[in-house]
Predict the 3D structure of the following.
Amino acid sequence: MVVEDVRGQYASKGTFYEFQQDLNDGYDSVEWAARLPGSNGRVGMYGSSYVGATQWLAAQKLPPHLTTIVPLNTASDYFEGWTYEGGAFRLGFIENWSMETIVQTAAANRGDTALAQRLKTDYLDIAKWMTYRPYRRFPPYRPDDPQVAPYFFDWIKHSTNDSYWSSIAPERHHSRIKLPMLHLEGWYDAFLDGGVRNFTGMAANGGSPEARAGQRLVIGPWDHQTWSRVPKERYVPAPMLSAIGSAGDYPLDEVMLAWFDRFLKGRDNGVSKGRPTVDYFEMGSNVWRRSPAWPLPGTRFTKYYLDSGGHAASILGDGRLSAQPPGGGQKPDRYTYDPRNPVPSVGGHSCCENRGGQQGPYDQQTVEARPDVLVYTGPELAADTHVTGPISVELYASSTARDTDWTAKLVDVAPDGTARNLNNGILRASFRASSTHPTPIKPGKVEKYTIKIWPTSNLFKAGHRIRLDISSSDFPQYAPNPNTGERFGQSDRVRTARQTILHDAEHPSSVTLPIVPADRVGPAYAKIPTTGLD
């Protein structure tokens, strides 16, 4: 076992710059470890979050002695799904994480103890700093001092998926990488979508038959911060996650050790049977299930259409979800989005501490009482309904702004009214056609937007209802769109936008859910086996 700090952090000397040095440093470290006394020449890597990124970046350089990796809670691309999502800056994660860890620890590493202490104090006021604009002049990171956090200001400068990001995008290299991999993710993790994309990308396009067959994905009822769902220092998990109890446990250490026994020591212990495997926890029923593929075989992608009498604003409105396409003459729904009063983030897929916003499932009724949140609720379900897989929203909408955001959230509504968020998504309007070359929208013009809600697995029990919430902000998870159309992060100007959502025969706004028939969900497990795969 070798434990290593990345360049410029903790016990490692040099200058830290996020991601840029981990390609070559990772290659060198793997090849060095392969030559250590007692090594058989096979090297594996494991770790969570950024330490998942260091695995992928090392793998991208193809070190000859790297044999397998076990990335936990990590992304497939460091623009989309790490720093930005759907074109929106992931404010609650990026500022919270960087201030508490990488900027502060890099300052301590180079001996700037005064700055490290100042950042530690500033972190206690992170809620205040997350309201600061313009981001290009973010005071805690001393924008005029290139030693402090040049990468942060580069992230702001490179607010599109340009060449700055292309060299550090692991999913672009799946076809070159020939490694079996054990991927672990959580339904409320900040990098869930990237973890799933890494699994599906390697299973479909990995660089060898053995690599394609040797992929295993595990998704549990976890957020980014804890597998056990119990409180720890500065972090309290969502009560709805804690309530799942031991049913959500997974033998993480045992499975990783068995994985390394198989691929580093050559033991035939059944952790890989020559085909991809997905172990996933179905919320609602609170059981583990297993599938040979993602999405699940037999999935029926089913549309539910937005419907109302023109008054879907808030939970008190008349918004409905219908299995039937809309007819003609339906009135649109309207609301006002003010960046100075954004919709608060109540749970969701984020990271890392509670100061950066809540993570996981929470009752959404307080948020849904706002007049700038459209609420569309389906009828009581007559039978249990299994929803597992990717989710998308087609939204026909217009805005009075030159650019704005659209948010979507899938919710499970219990008979007592409790509204549990399952997952969410966002799309910056100017990114509707391209993340590389965004284009402004024409005020008042109706456009079709496709919003990606990150995956989930949930049993909607009979008597429950399916709900979709639509709005234009989710703060602090995402930086509020100022509605000005100006380049991101460069100005503190904002303006109010009037938003219109259409749902008539010509504009059939809808959400597509991955419905899995009851006879295709497969057997339920109280506990997933550590080794053998059936």
